[in-house]
Amino acid sequence: MVRVYFVCRKCRVGAYPLDARAGVDGYASRQARRLMCLAGASWSFDRASEHLEELCGLKVSDNTIRKACQEEATAMACWQRESTEARVPFRKAEGDIEFSTDGTNVNTTGGWREMRVGIFSKRHRGEPADVTNWHCRDLPSPHVRLSFAAIETADRFRSRWSRWVSRLGIDDTSQITALGDGASWIWEGAAMHFAGHDGVLDIFHALEHVAETAKGLFGKHLDKASQWRDQAREALLVGGWPSMFDLLRATKRNVSRGRWAKHGRPLEKYLGKRKEQLDYPRRLAAGQSIGSGQVEGACKHMIGRRLKQTGARWRVRRVNRMACLCALIHADQWKTYWDSAA
Q1: pTM, 2 dp
Q2: If DSSP codes are grouped into helix, strand and coil, which group holds residue 86?
Q3: So what's the pLDDT on residue 227?
Q4: To the nearest whole number, what is the mean pLDDT of the chain?
Q5: What are phi and psi of 315, to 5 degrees?
Q6: Among 218, 222, 244, which residue's Cα sits nearest to residue 231?
Q7: Domain regions of the chain by residue span
Q8: Coil, helix or strand at residue 130
Q9: Which of 50, 93, 138, 248 could form an S-S bond across to 144 if both were Cys, CB 3.0 to 4.6 Å?
Q10: What is the number of other CB atoms lying within 10 angstroms of the CB of residue 32?
C-alpha cells in the first residue's frame, strides 16, 4: 500500500488524507504498532524486521520497530500504573496472593547491572502433599499476575511494592505470601511493606545450601554426603526449622570441629536467621507453593531471552522501557492493553 501525500497550494500544509480513516497515528496504524511491539519484544530489532516481512508482509526497519517499542512502552507503564482496567482481573480473581521477586544481570553501556523483577499473582491451592510427593505434585499455576521490572536501587524498587498493594486492592497484607531466595534486600523490603506476611525461603535455594554443606562436611565420602543431604531435605519438609536444627546438633557431634566450623555452622546460621521462612510442612499440607520458580522463570524468559542476547548493550532508560513491554506480555495484560487503548 502506498500512502499519497497532498499539499495545499494556498497554505502549503501537507498531510496524508486517508491516515485518519485507516487509523494511522503518526507513522503507523494501531495494529501495525501492536505487531511491531510484539515482534520487538520477541526478537532483536533486526530479526523482528525480517520476521514481520516474512510473516505478514509488513516492511519496517529495525529502527522503526525500536522507536515503536520505546514509545509504546512508556504508554504501557502509565496504563499499568493508572488504568483501572489493568487491575480489575487481579482484584476479581480468587486464590492465595503471592509476591515473588528476584534479580538478573543485564548488560548496559555502563557495564552489567542488576534488573529486579517483581510479580504479584493469585493461585488456587492444590492437593495436600508431603515429603514423598512434593516435587511431583500437580500444583495449579497462577491464573492472574502482574509483573514489573527495572534496573534501579533496591530501595527505589521496593518503594513500588506498597503502591502496587494499594492499586491491586490488597487490604490485608498478612494475606500475602512472599517467596524469594536469601537476598537480604528481599526480606527487608517484605518486612517493611507487607506487614504480617507469610515469608517462604525458596525450597530449592535452601536445598542448594544443604547440598553444598553436605559436600563440605563429608568430603570424599560421597555416600555419607548423599545420605546426610537426604536426611536434611526430609527434616526441612517434615519438620521445618526445629527438625533441621536437631539434625544439625546431631551432626555437630559426629564431625570434626574444623569441618563443623567451616561448613556446618554457616548453614546453621543461615537457616536460623530465616527459621520463620522454613515452615514447609504447613504449606505442603495446605496445598500451597514453597518455591519461587515463577519469578526465576520470569528472569530467564521474560528478561533473559530478549534483553540478554549476545552482543546486546542497553542504555538503562531504554532497557527499562523494554522490560515494561516484556512484563506486560508476561503478565497476560497484552490484549487488555491494546483493546483498552484502541
Answers
A1: 0.91
A2: helix
A3: 97
A4: 93
A5: -75, 140
A6: 244
A7: 6-82, 90-199+293-340, 204-277
A8: coil
A9: 93
A10: 20
* Spatial distance between the Cα atoms of 310 and 313, rounded to a whole number of angstroms: 9
Long-range contacts of 308-316 (CB under 8 A, 24+ apart): 308/104, 308/105, 308/106, 308/107, 309/44, 312/44, 312/107, 313/107, 313/108, 313/109, 314/106, 314/107, 314/108, 314/109, 315/108, 315/109, 316/108, 316/109, 316/110, 316/113, 316/151
Q: Which three cell numbers stand for residue 278?
A: 522454613
Beta pairing class for 96-108 and 176-180: parallel
Angle between helices 62-82 and 45-56 (to 10 degrees): 100
What's the one-letter identity of residue 65? I
- Here the cell at position 14 is 501537507
Residues 254, 249: Cα–Cα separation, whole Å: 9
Cα three-residue angle 295-301-307, rounded to 5 degrees = 110
Q: Which amino acid is at 314?
A: W
In this structure, what C-alpha cell is assigned to residue 28? Answer: 503507523
Cα of first residue to Cα of last residue in the chain, in angstroms, is 22
The upper half-sphere exposure of residue 291, i.e. CA atoms within 13 Å in the direction of its Cβ, equals: 17
Q: What is the pLDDT of residues 103-140, one digit of tens each?
A: 999 999 999 999 999 999 999 999 999 999 999 999 99
Q: Give the pLDDT confidence score for residue 24 in this predicted structure.
A: 56
Is residue 114 within 8 Å of residue 103, measured between CB atoms? yes
Give percent above pLDDT 70 in the chain: 93
CA distance 106 to 33: 26
Report whether 298 contacts 147 (CB < 8 A). yes
Distance of CA 194 to the CA centre of its chain: 18
Find the mean pLDDT for residues 22-43.
85
Backbone angles phi, psi at 255, to 5 degrees: -125, 165
How far apart, in whole angstroms, are the C-alpha atoms of residue 32 and residue 75? 16
